[in-house]
């Protein structure tokens, strides 16, 4: 939302209006799919005429940054096209082994974004992080855990921290991987949350990450994010190894029974 008049444009030209709106989109104030406020409201907040605003919006439409739909208004266009149906992403989704590659990428990006968030988060950022954290904790403590719902809450918590990094490239990189990130979070929740020890580990790590960011401790936040994702990977690998051991044991039993019957 546009909430302050401090950011009045140095000029009222359409190019300046377009540039200001581009900054707001890059900063994640307006995200892909978000409807822009009414013309009257944007004119008031930006301190520009309706004519300049309309021309500025026309510039953004010509660049493909916003789209205008009759009867609905203008909304931010997808900034990364083809993310849902690209062949590479299909390969990622269809081959479980890439889950570990994704966790590795998440560790690199989210550890840095947590560190930056601890350093740069504004009061408004901290309010949003606190809301996302409390929503996640409330669902966990309800005792009626819905795996898909928890995965979305978990992802929203991590995304709020990333947005508080105030690094537009980092934010949009993670947002462009939303489907893949959700799949990794879903896999973690589905496979780990019904087990007491991993569940407690994840809850502790979320709290540790939350506190480090909220208390403005960059190094502690980086370590907490890294340890969180490394811990999830270790637990998933242990489950995978356990499943393989059970499969081998079952095969040996079948082969043993077959030999007994044939002797």
Can you summarize this structure?
The chain has helices at 14-26, 39-46, 50-63, 87-94, 98-120, 123-141, 147-163, 168-176, 178-192, 196-214, 218-262; strands at residues 66-69, 73-76.
Architecture overview:
This protein has eleven helices and two strands. By secondary structure, it is mainly alpha-helical. A hairpin with a 3-residue loop joins strand 1 and strand 2. Helix 5 crosses helix 7 and helix 6 packs antiparallel against helix 10. The chain is elongated. The protein starts with 13 loop residues before the first helix and ends with a helix. The N terminus is likely disordered.
Q: Briefly, what CATH class of the largest domain?
A: Mainly Alpha
Low-confidence stretches: 3-10, 82-88
Helical stretch tally: 11
Could you name the CATH topology of the largest domain?
A: Four Helix Bundle (Hemerythrin (Met), subunit A)
Question: Do you know the CATH architecture of the largest domain?
Answer: Up-down Bundle
What helical percentage do the residues reach? over 70%
Could you tell me the radius of gyration in angstroms?
A: 23 Å
Largest beta-sheet details? 2 strands, antiparallel
The string of secondary-structure elements, in order, is: HHHEEHHHHHHHH
Strand order across the biggest sheet?
1-2
Between the first and last Cα atoms, what is the distance in angstroms? 78 Å
Note the overall shape. elongated
List the domain count as a whole number: 2
* Number of β-strand runs: 2
Structural class: mainly alpha
**Mean pLDDT value:** 81
Which percent range describes the beta-strand content?
Answer: under 5%
CATH superfamily of the largest domain: GntR ligand-binding domain-like
